[in-house]
Write a structure and sequence with these properties.
Blueprint lengths: L1 E4 L7 H8 L6 E5 L4 H13 L1 H4 L11 E8 L4 E3 L9 E4 L4 H22 L6 E7 L2 H12 L3 E5 L5 H7 L2 H8 L4 E4 L6 H11 L1
Parallel strand pairs: 1-8, 2-3, 2-7, 3-6, 7-8
Antiparallel strand pairs: 4-5
Helix pairs in contact: 5-7
Length: 201
C-alpha cells in the first residue's frame, strides 16, 4: 500500500489510523540521501508520526524504532584508452581509498544532520549503511528488518527522467513488503513563481 502526503502536512488516512493505534509503537524506516527532499521527508516523519514512534515516559511505554537507511551505489572503475575511439574498459569494483574516505565523510555528515532532526523527540533511532542499487537495497532492508512503514521523499523527476532513470519511490511502492509513505516536497508559492518569471524577462 502506498500513500502520498504533500508539503502542507495534512494527515492521510493511513497515518491517522496509525496514530489512533498509539498503544502499538511502530518500526519506521526512512530512506536518506543528500537531497533536500530526503531531509524534508525525515522532518515530516518525525513530526507527524511521533505518536507511533516516540516513547512515553509518563506511562512507562517504550517507543518504536526509527531506522535511517542510506545506500552507497556500487562504484565501478573504468580505464579509458588514450587516443583512438575505443570504449572504456571495466577495471575493478574496488573503491579507491580517496573516494572511499570522501564517501565516509559525506555519510557521516548526512547522519549527523539527520540525527539532529531526531534529537529531543524521544525517538529511538538507528542508522544503516548499505551498498548496491538503492531501490533494491532499501526493499531488502525493509524485508530483513520487518519494519511497519517505509518513508521516502519524492525526488520530483520529470516524465523523461523517470522513464530513463526510474524512481526509488516508484520501485519501493511496487516491491517493498510494507506500507510506504511518499512525502512530496514543498511547492513553490505562486508569488515566488511569478517573481522568477519576472526576473527571467
Amino acid at each position: 500500500m502506498e500513500t502520498y502526503v504533500d508539503a502542507i502536512g495534512v494527515d492521510t488516512e493511513a497515518t491517522t489510523t496509525m496514530a489512533k493505534q498509539s498503544k502499538k509503537k511502530l518500526k519506521v524506516m526512512v530512506a536518506m540521501d543528500e537531497s533536500k527532499n530526503s531531509f524534508y521527508a525525515l522532518e515530516w516523519a518525525v513530526e507527524h508520526l511521533r505518536d507511533v514512534i516516540s516513547a512515553e515516559p509518563e506511562t512507562d511505554q517504550a517507543g518504536g524504532l526509527l531506522t535511517l537507511v542510506h545506500v552507497h551505489p556500487t562504484y565501478l572503475q573504468y580505464i579509458y584508452p588514450s587516443g583512438g575511439t575505443a570504449s572504456a574498459v571495466y577495471a575493478t569494483d574496488s573503491v579507491p581509498e580517496s573516494m572511499k574516505k570522501a564517501r565516509e565523510e559525506s555519510t557521516a555528515k548526512l547522519f549527523t544532520r539527520s540525527l539532529e532532526i531526531c534529537r529531543g523527540k524521544m525517538v529511538k533511532t538507528e542508522t544503516m549503511i548499505l551498498e548496491g542499487d538503492p531501490k533494491e537495497m532499501i526493499c531488502q532492508a525493509v524485508e530483513q528488518t520487518h519494519v511497519d512503514l517505509l518513508v521516502v521523499g519524492s525526488r520530483g523527476l520529470g516524465m523523461i527522467k523517470r522513464a530513463f532513470l526510474g524512481s526509488v519511490s516508484d520501485y519501493c511502492a511496487q516491491h517493498a513488503k510494507c506500507p510506504i509513505l511518499i512525502v512530496r516536497p514543498p511547492r513553490e508559492t505562486s508569488t515566488s513563481s511569478s517573481t522568477k518569471e519576472h526576473k527571467s524577462n
